[in-house]
Amino acid sequence: MHFIPEELDNYVVAHSEDEPELLQELTRETFQKILQPRMLSGHYQGRVLSMISKLVHPKNILEIGTYTGYSALCLAEGMQKDGELHTIDINEELEDFQRKYFDKSLFGKQIIQHLGNALEIIPKLDKTFDLIFIDADKDNYPAYFKIIIDKLNTGGIILSDNVLWSGKVIEPLNPDDTSTKALLEYNILLKEDKRVETVVLPIRDGLTISRKK
Ligand SMILES: C[S@@+](CC[C@H](N)C(=O)[O-])C[C@H]1O[C@@H](n2cnc3c(N)ncnc32)[C@H](O)[C@@H]1O
């Protein structure tokens, strides 16, 4: 989805950081071997995630929705030297692919993979986080917020992807469209919850930054 004319969008990308070589390789292999390759964050959003992580300089990071590991590697770029990145995905077929690229990066030893349903795994994580990236099944976004908010440190950041859902959030709602329904609920939740301050960025499919007060 282009929020600005495509030509201007290309200009924005051309004047932003280049995509690291390892991430170019990961993208190529994802497109060759994995279903739904468009799910990965990609060059521009990846550089945005990396920049936000470098600004936050988090010790511990939580990611919900690893897929092939692209966004995890971007977020890891800003992590503290003794920090950990915990990333959760329900699809076991992706595990070896993710590990291969995590180990090729500088952050292999600091990235911990969790396999299973994030709703079941998160309550068992005995950690608090400075940065949390939500990028899994949209229907569960409100539920994710409710189980992560107490695990987010004061001043910590939640990044939520796909919050504009290709513009469906402003179109008439199809009652069978549970994902759009959940995202509409989620966007109101973030705006109204007094524990966070929130800004929606019209980047790619919509990326929200919420900071815990
Ligand atoms: C959009 S992709 C993540 C893309 C990745 N963050 C990136 O930018 O490269 C969503 C991922 O969430 C995973 N997923 C879906 N439902 C899940 C759940 N309940 N718990 C954990 N992972 C889930 C899917 O298997 C898929 O790999």
Summarize the model shown:
This protein has 8 helices and 7 strands; from the N terminus they run H-H-H-E-H-E-H-E-H-E-H-E-H-E-E. By secondary structure, the chain is an alpha/beta fold. The site of S-adenosylmethionine has 17 residues, from helix 4 and strand 2.
Give the topology, please.
Layout: H1 6-14, H2 21-33, H3 43-56, E1 60-64, H4 70-76, E2 84-89, H5 95-104, E3 111-115, H6 118-121, E4 129-134, H7 141-148, E5 152-161, H8 178-192, E6 196-201, E7 207-212
Parallel strand pairs: 1-2, 1-4, 2-3, 4-5
Antiparallel strand pairs: 5-7, 6-7
Helix pairs in contact: 3-4
Note the main attributes of this structure.
213 residues, alpha/beta, seven-stranded mixed β-sheet, 21% strand, globular, binds S-adenosylmethionine
Q: What does this protein look like?
A:
The structure is a single chain. Helix content is 38%, strand content 21%. The protein is α/β, with parallel strands linked by helices. It has a 7-stranded mixed β-sheet with strand order 3-2-1-4-5-7-6, sandwiched between helices. The radius of gyration is 16 Å and the shape is globular. 37% of the residues are buried. The model has no long low-confidence stretch (mean pLDDT 97). Bound molecules: S-adenosylmethionine (SAM). The site of S-adenosylmethionine (SAM) has 17 residues, from helix 4 and strand 2.
Radius of gyration (CA) equals 16 Å
Total strands: 7
Alpha-beta content class: alpha/beta
Major β-sheet profile = 7 strands, mixed
Bound molecules: S-adenosylmethionine
Distance between the termini: 32 Å
So what's the overall shape?
globular
- Stretches with pLDDT under 50, minimum 5 residues: none
H/E element order: HHHEHEHEHEHEHEE
Beta-strand proportion: 15-25%
Strand order within the widest sheet?
3-2-1-4-5-7-6
Mean pLDDT: 97
Q: Determine the number of helices (DSSP H or I, runs of at least 4 residues).
A: 8
Question: In which range does the helix fraction lie?
Answer: 25-40%
